[in-house]
UniProtKB/TrEMBL annotation, chains A, B, C, D:
Domain Glucose dehydrogenase C-terminal residues, every copy: 149-362
Gene3D superfamilies found in the cross-reference section: Medium-chain alcohol dehydrogenases, catalytic domain (3.90.180.10), NAD(P)-binding Rossmann-like Domain (3.40.50.720)
CDD domains from the UniProt entry: glucose_DH (cd08230)
Full protein name: Alcohol dehydrogenase
All residue ranges annotated as the Alcohol dehydrogenase-like N-terminal domain in the record: 34-144
Keywords annotated in UniProt: Carbohydrate metabolism, Metal-binding, NAD, NADP, Nucleotide-binding, Oxidoreductase, Zinc
GO biological process, one term: galactose catabolic process via D-galactonate
Cofactor requirements of the protein: Zn(2+)
Originating organism: Thermogymnomonas acidicola
Amino acid sequence: MAQVNAILTDAPKGGVRYGKIDIRDEEGANAKLEPVYTGICGTDRGIVSGSLQFAYNPQGYSSLVLGHESVCKVIDIGENPYHIRPGDYVVPVVRRPGDCVNCLAGRQDNCSDGNKHEAGITGMHGFMREYFYDHSDYLVKVKDPSILDVAVLTEPTKNVMKAFEVFSVVSKRAIFHNRHSTLTDKRAFVIGTGSEAFLYALMCREYGFETVILNRHPIDERKLSLADAAGIEFHDYSKDFDQVTQGGIDLLIDTSGHPETIFRFMRKMNYNGVLILFGTNGKAPGAPLDGSDIDYIVERNITIAGSVDAAQVHYYQALEYIRKWRYVYGKAFASMITGVYSPEETDIFSRKPAEEIKSVIKW
Amino acid sequence: MAQVNAILTDAPKGGVRYGKIDIRDEEGANAKLEPVYTGICGTDRGIVSGSLQFAYNPQGYSSLVLGHESVCKVIDIGENPYHIRPGDYVVPVVRRPGDCVNCLAGRQDNCSDGNKHEAGITGMHGFMREYFYDHSDYLVKVKDPSILDVAVLTEPTKNVMKAFEVFSVVSKRAIFHNRHSTLTDKRAFVIGTGSEAFLYALMCREYGFETVILNRHPIDERKLSLADAAGIEFHDYSKDFDQVTQGGIDLLIDTSGHPETIFRFMRKMNYNGVLILFGTNGKAPGAPLDGSDIDYIVERNITIAGSVDAAQVHYYQALEYIRKWRYVYGKAFASMITGVYSPEETDIFSRKPAEEIKSVIKW
Amino acid sequence: MAQVNAILTDAPKGGVRYGKIDIRDEEGANAKLEPVYTGICGTDRGIVSGSLQFAYNPQGYSSLVLGHESVCKVIDIGENPYHIRPGDYVVPVVRRPGDCVNCLAGRQDNCSDGNKHEAGITGMHGFMREYFYDHSDYLVKVKDPSILDVAVLTEPTKNVMKAFEVFSVVSKRAIFHNRHSTLTDKRAFVIGTGSEAFLYALMCREYGFETVILNRHPIDERKLSLADAAGIEFHDYSKDFDQVTQGGIDLLIDTSGHPETIFRFMRKMNYNGVLILFGTNGKAPGAPLDGSDIDYIVERNITIAGSVDAAQVHYYQALEYIRKWRYVYGKAFASMITGVYSPEETDIFSRKPAEEIKSVIKW
Amino acid sequence: MAQVNAILTDAPKGGVRYGKIDIRDEEGANAKLEPVYTGICGTDRGIVSGSLQFAYNPQGYSSLVLGHESVCKVIDIGENPYHIRPGDYVVPVVRRPGDCVNCLAGRQDNCSDGNKHEAGITGMHGFMREYFYDHSDYLVKVKDPSILDVAVLTEPTKNVMKAFEVFSVVSKRAIFHNRHSTLTDKRAFVIGTGSEAFLYALMCREYGFETVILNRHPIDERKLSLADAAGIEFHDYSKDFDQVTQGGIDLLIDTSGHPETIFRFMRKMNYNGVLILFGTNGKAPGAPLDGSDIDYIVERNITIAGSVDAAQVHYYQALEYIRKWRYVYGKAFASMITGVYSPEETDIFSRKPAEEIKSVIKW
């Protein structure tokens, strides 16, 4: 049992405070870690506002340490096959396996029965604390420490890697590419302009898609610069919906969770199109689909795939793409970190800065 | 140019009559065929009622010969690599390729641009005429003539084969099977109790699923017998929706095209579940999906796939399964043909007999 | 501990006798089974002759009960989710999982580390005994008892199902089918004319291949009749190698384990061809491959895949295909059982009848 | 018809000279290109030495312009959907499609019948000439001109991309990864230490493999530095074969085309291992495989896949990885270009500098 300072909530009731908590020794842990940066996302804010009913405290605790996006320094670690040593930087895996067939294969992101835990969200303390203990089996090493300033983006980026794995699998049901085997004339639309949206759009570019990010209002200069650097187009679809959707959509990725918006763009999808549902917004109002919409999905062989979380392999992939983007796009990429806060500044959990891409806490 | 008796409509206006039409010589045809049986489905009735706006007459014609489900006798045929000879029975392929990358690979069912034609539906005369000419490249031989009485089911069955191909591809995004590699405890639900629904359910059984067919009213003895023979359960979900959906749904197949019904069952899907949309009903009223529904699809890694038509390879597969089912289930399977009509009895296009599974025309 | 009569060997030394053995209670078993038929294959004969060094007795035993091919009657069984009841017939699974990632997913056929057991072969008693106990999790029910006379073919057939799964996966690296999406002009060659060869050839026909089985000597009438019934060609390649291989080979399946023969046919494979290695013959002499052979494999994008054993799902598939073949091919298929012996006639383990396809023991 | 200076051979007789050739106008070309760098590989040297019998002059020519590895400057270009403009740099595609089903889908690398052409090799003039005309459909744009010094590596790298596509497909036949979904403890061995070997090894690292490159002699400092930078181990297997192969091999990639060496390492492959055959050496002597080798491949579910050339999509992928490697590994990567020659220095086609990784010609 040890007492540490941590950013705490009481799930699913909500609230947030920076204070002390007594944490029991973590079974089977062979590494001591200190967070360097932890990131804040909509899930954290949802837990704090008390609107995510699936969140819950760890068994035997009356509060939950927040935080699932992090990059940590290794203070101490036992022998391990991952070549991780004290002084290295690592990203801990958020979701921990249960005992279903997917979990046993290291694919707790595809858990078959829901019996898994997520750090900082469902029944397991998160990473927003002075230090914590974990097992090296769940630590992903940051091979190139020169990307430390952006490595906290690994967690949101790993979701993108998994979603593209899903895309790769489901798009094989037909020939998705053009007659030169490429995607140069295929159009990927990403709904949203937050950090996940940008990370998705960057990956669309890696696949060679013509890539568009979308919002119903203009975006600021910083976002436009990053889009420019990567050859991503931005459209304010409140103005030019018909024009921007001319030519149709081959890959549609939603980060909004907003049915009406999703369906509006879905009705512009091309034959064999793939729609990845990633964003969630449990309170979003309903929007109807009618017989002609079902008909559209059927006649065009359209695939719609929900995608949540990611496997450990996707953390490794995420780190490699972050590494590339950090080198190739330089400051334009690093500028995705739009605000750095101290652990005490807990008001960042209840307000979203206007130009936020990613707000992080420096420990 | 030759004058033949045919069942005619004027697409997309509708109407139906058995009468004479002058047909131009068909380019590139090397086979003369006479239909033995042609089947009637919802698409035919939709065209006749004038409710399918995508239907159209062949270029230069003011009417359209109906009919896409058929088994035909070969009257005359040129040399061909398919070992088809005069006197053989064949099923002609419905959809003919355009020049997109999928069509060029023989996958016009996955046509990328919509530039294909469908016999009896879109811009190409169908098979409900005394005789017609076609090319051997689009004829699938019935190897075992002892199944002639049910071979007209090849066309609807080939859709099932394609949909299961889609299922096989998209379900690979996670481990779909149980920890013994089988589907014995996985549950497939098929919405509908028409011919397509039964063919889907029979195929679910081949995969080893616990299989349920669903309607909102009881079904007659003949249908129950076929279900029994194949180990398929029937449920009248207007009565026991909660009970029947307990345990969840792993594979949900819709043949109704009715959004409200589809969504009701979709909300009972298990993790990694797959929903195949096959049925279409352009006039079905809208039903809403809200934020929590999107959330459900995301968190559970659910995949929804529209599936239309099928490739030539699926006709071959369909014939092999029909062959198996004809031998193994015997009369229970043959009784899927619930009514045999003459070409003159065109009223069958505007009424659906109460106990119909499949109505056919004998030529 | 119970004493039963069994067919025994001392692995890997060899020998065979029908006699008594004391068997310890089998942990976790909830079913009592009596074999109806058990099949004999090359592996059994190899163990008896002492030439299979990987075979070994179960821990704590000085002998091994033989037998991995079987169909059994259920004498007694606990409650189970497989709807298996006393009086039913079942096929027990041969290979039992270790704890590698493939075994945990029910794919012990793809065991990653070799820590599995095989009934009657490696460290686990086989099925050739008056009765035995097993767990329902490893029993596959014979749904249709009318195929009891051929259900003992399930075990060899399940290997075919797995090999075709492998083919389906690896052949996706290019478009394998023709421009009509079918395999009607693709050529499958199966080396060998034993039971496995015939079962492979029957499955090639299900896929639509032009199918050839091959041996270096003529085969008898019974085999020719079965080949005929299924549209399989036989060639004595000692006579017409050049002629029969004209046109090339798209899918080559070996059941001989004989390198020289395999390579001879491999050099005739078409672009994107797939070679399945299934047969094993540890004593077969070496045959060389030179630089031009490697070149051929590279330039033609050829894939060679070893395939051993099968998963539980393949037992289910095997039973369904056996069911179809039993109904459709009737006696021609049933005649694959070429000899029925009593347990006492153990000389059948040391001699192979001239016209043998499958010899079985009736219990 | 225009006369240009070019590096010429007379295929398949061989020889090399820098001189003038009259080239007919190229049909359908809409772009004029000047090479900046062209690379030299074993194929070029094989053609020059007259040892590649499959090489041939274009129809109507008595000589062949050499060169398939290149990066070119666009002098003039018509309107095109690829955003290529005069002044841009591009890599032209080597292999041009025939009319088989794979070629029609843009996969001439998987050509089903051999009816394709390769620039500088089989029936089509190569890129080693002052300027040439081509169609924009076969030009891949270098988006980031800051990698111009290494962009000539695109052509050899695209082969690596295709081989990994093959690996991705065939390795799906079992669970290839460990129980954490990663490859951190999986071992990739690359036979050879030339440019292709290094590019393969770099890609193995991207997948997370423990990666080893192998030769039967030591390698120089420059090569060791590049290996170090990327975390690749080198082993001189003439010394420590047993030690280095302890732990087995999960992915084996051959760039040597030498059967004896390939088989020696193949016998150390782990369960579910994949062997990619890429290197060719038509004159390499034969080495035997015997029954126990076949047994090994079967029992371990090993897959062996020949892989040649690549599709246009792989050129795009290659450029993105080269871009990453150029930024991340900096000079260590750029030092793969070990020698720069003028077009007149044609002796480079008949000798291989000792420390060569890649020799290029500057135009």
